[in-house]
Amino acid sequence: MTNFNDFGLAEPILRALAEEKYETPTPIQAQTIPAAMKGRDIVGIAQTGTGKTASFALPILNHIVNYRMRPSQKAARVLVLSPTRELSGQIADSFRTYGRHIRPLTVELAIGGVPINRQSRGMARGAEVLVATPGRLLDLVQQRSVVLDQVEILVLDEADRMLDMGFIRDIRKIVQMLPQKRQTLFFSATMPKEITQLAESMLKDPERVSVTPESTTVERIAQRVILTEKSAKPGLLVEVIKSETIDRVLVFTRTKHGADKVVRQLESSGLPAAAIHGNKSQNQRERVLAQFRDGSLRILIATDIAARGIDVDGITHVVNYDLPNIPESYVHRIGRTARAGRDGVAISFCDHEENGFLRDIERTIRIKIPSEDRRTGRSAGRSEPAPHHHANGRNGGGNRRGGNGQNRGRNGGQGHGQGHGEQRPQRAKGHGGNANGGHQNGQRNGGRPATAAAGGHHGGGEDIGGMKFMQRGPNRPRNHAPR
Ligand code: AMP
What we know:
Blueprint: H1 11-19, H2 27-37, E1 42-45, H3 52-66, E2 76-81, H4 85-98, E3 107-110, H5 116-123, E4 127-132, H6 134-142, E5 153-156, H7 159-164, H8 168-177, E6 183-188, H9 193-202, E7 207-210, H10 216-219, E8 221-227, H11 233-243, E9 249-252, H12 256-268, E10 274-276, H13 282-294, E11 299-302, H14 304-307, E12 317-320, H15 327-334, E13 344-350, H16 355-365, E14 371-373, E15 462-464, E16 467-469
Parallel strand pairs: 1-6, 1-7, 2-4, 2-5, 3-4, 5-6, 8-13, 8-14, 9-11, 9-12, 10-11, 12-13
Antiparallel strand pairs: 15-16
Helix pairs in contact: 2-3, 3-4, 15-16
């Protein structure tokens, strides 16, 4: 399918897509939409950024147009479960966008961090689509504000993340309340054993679809490391922000506290900034994100969890104020820039304590990131060898995650816990569906910046977050900036 008109979607939906300037379905959409329109269950391996939201929202809206009926009081015809408030909000927005010419269409959101009463009132007359995080949904069911026995279509989004966040029991509970006869669309970036089991228990003869995100984006990210003292990071950040040509910069810190501190430091230097993390109210977060999107806020500080699922185009720079202790998180962070065909810059600050993290990251991505040494004193000069590692292994340095203790609690709400334990990488399996793979750029990168090489069919690489990282090519120059 190369055109949305080929799917046989209803006219109001096509009109909205045309207004959104969507012309060509993405690979996940091309695979998912026809099968879902036939009523098939789906198990989809896809990440945010692949267009997966529309891949389920469009056939669902089409079903709503074709089978018009008034939802009963407190009932939802479609239930979408997602792990975080941000992702849920974005999904609801997508339904409203693609469904803007369908009337009536009620899309309700049930997420933690905002008063429950408004959500109860919202559901009083029922809704076509209810997008929810599992904990808040169960609270609403418990207080008899929502009934689930009329759900015709269930979507489970980012199932692997649900597992990490400790939602699997809640999900099983919710599924038990749903009618047996329903359509289920199940999406996950990875399929670990527990997720496969969950899918098997929920799906009937599913159509399997899988894609990896376009990897060309990674090629366009210029990566740099600045070796620094911890105490010099605030000044360095101000300097970087002032010296780079920045449209939008996303600054990552490891902790919520760290994020707030960075905001204060920047503001005292005359750089307006805001943070999003689990301690912020939903309203605050939405306001900040809207400002970041519309360009009135240029500097956003985020923790890994808070940034998940946020899809903002036009982020020119990602700064890792703290390096993540999990290499895959690094890949996900830098993937926030260079979207929609643009270039991006990723600058990482690395203090003494983070040297090991940097080594792991370089081993995993198989690139020695050009670095600039701004450290003072005798410890300057990082001398470890270039990370030649596991020519063919899928496990190059990526096995540290076990140590960081996964948080399986409910976090007292919806996806707003922020401890180290939540930071689990998403790892897309290589499914070869790499639309733009093919050319290896192992010979670029004469000096700086490093760009992660993307390739679709060369062996020996490792897929992380759907991005293919290749081994250093034999001819690749290694004249990096001095360490
Ligand atoms: P998702 O993976 O659902 O988070 O979507 C990623 C981004 O791609 C969103 O900003 C969508 O609006 C956009 N998008 C999804 N499908 C298409 C399409 N077929 N053409 C253009 N943009 C799209």
